[in-house]
Amino acid sequence: MNLNHLIAIAGSDAALELFRRFPTYRALAQADALKLQETPGVGPKTAACIRAAIGIAYELPKEIEQERPLCDTPERIAELMSALCIAAPKETFWAVLLDTRRRLIEICPVSTGTLDSVFVHPRDVFRAAIAANASGIVLVHNHPSGDPTPSEADIKVTRDLIRAGQLLKLEIVDHVICGRASTERSRAYASLRELGFFYAFRPIA
After folding, report:
1. What are the chain's domains?
2. Cystine design at 174: which of 108, 140, 192, 193 (Cβ 3.0–4.6 Å)?
């Protein structure tokens, strides 16, 4: 939960004070309703809303992972990630870890950036994949503007991660960018593999 989410629930003054008292998501999640109400401007109703939002944020990834959906097409990946992408007000990058049958192992948040960019380091993408014994990784990030067209930076980071994955024997299956459908575009996502960027890339010999 970021500051914008807290402002929507508690108002700007109370949200800023909550962020000062609970500077990390873990600290906020561990605070019970009575502890939250010690913050000026946070009453029982607001504290209950904050606790409910934290509960949803905690349970959603667990529920998705328990269902172990098949993630073998960009469309299925976009559908899987749509709720998380819509809820993210800034560009956010995830690694969707898959087993050998292209079923979901885990959704790992990697990095959060600004409204139009996000920095991604290979070690943050592959650390969780190695620990989970994943067979493949689908890279996913959102474009808050709604236009899922990949930028030059998106293409470059994809190719950098493909190279790193080859060295680690971990396949980058696709890079799916989530946006919003419109009158100009029928699909709310773009697949860099479908667009040909994977095939144009020369693998390491």
Report:
1. 3-64 (1.10.150.20), 69-191 (3.40.140.10)
2. 193
